[in-house]
Design goal:
Elements (H helix, E strand, L loop, with lengths): L5 H11 L3 H23 L9 H10 L4 H4 L8 H7 L6 H10 L1 H4 L7 H21 L11 H9 L10 H4 L1 H5 L3 H14 L1 H4 L2
Helix pairs in contact: 1-3, 2-3, 2-8, 2-12, 6-8, 8-12
Bound molecules: fe (ii) ion (2 copies).
């Protein structure tokens, strides 16, 4: 069986997700997870046995079935797990997908550093897009970590974004909120072309 690489993840995404903004959310999370892989490695943290590329792959695929499951929330991730059966996927990667929609699927409580990192950055990438889009230039390069943090405290701004996911970073991944925002923003800025911003 073929391995689940970034390339195969992109193919799956393009097959199953037509909305360009949704795809970009998946790319943003992929690039962010790969930046956190580097951060943890520099800190000599226990990161498990997956490679940087596999962290990115999981980010790309965490919402890959969302367009096809959006009317049946408890199916989100279950469909992706079906697609995984066509590939040779290490259990650690399967587990991340199982944990991603656990509130609905009850498949697996997030546990590993990667699983919790995904939890903490998922909404944040969308929040950063919202901060970018209110700038006159609408460019990621003009976003400052301080303005993300400031908007984060304004409850009226991007109301739909659940802040509690990001707020658990200190407790769950031992990353302070400043580092969480800086690392995510930098990863997105470095990939602004892919993200169209
Ligand atoms: Fe999701
Ligand atoms: Fe997501």
């Amino acid at each position: 069986m073929e391995k689940l690489t970034v390339e195969n993840a992109n193919k799956l995404l393009i097959t199953h997700m037509q909305n360009q903004n949704l795809r970009r959310h998946c790319y943003a999370v992929g690039k962010t997870l790969s930046a956190f892989y580097d951060l943890y490695k520099n800190q000599n943290r226990e990161i498990g046995s997956l490679s940087k590329e596999q962290w990115e792959t999981i980010g790309i695929l965490h919402d890959a079935d969302w367009e096809e499951t959006k009317d049946v929330p408890e199916k989100h991730t279950v469909l992706t797990l079906e697609w995984f059966k066509e590939y040779d996927v290490p259990e650690e990667m399967v587990n991340v997908i199982k944990s991603h929609n656990n509130k609905m699927t009850h498949l697996r409580e997030p546990e590993t550093l990667l699983e919790w990192t995904l939890e903490c950055v998922d909404e944040l990438t969308g929040f950063i897009v919202a901060v970018t889009l209110v700038l006159p230039s609408k460019k990621l390069e003009d976003v400052k970590p301080e303005s993300v943090l400031k908007k984060f405290k304004q409850k009226e701004f991007a109301k739909a974004v659940d802040r509690s996911q990001m707020e658990q970073c200190e407790e769950k991944i031992q990353v302070d909120i400043n580092t969480l925002v800086e690392t995510t923003l930098k990863a997105m800025q470095e990939n602004h072309e892919l993200l169209g911003l």
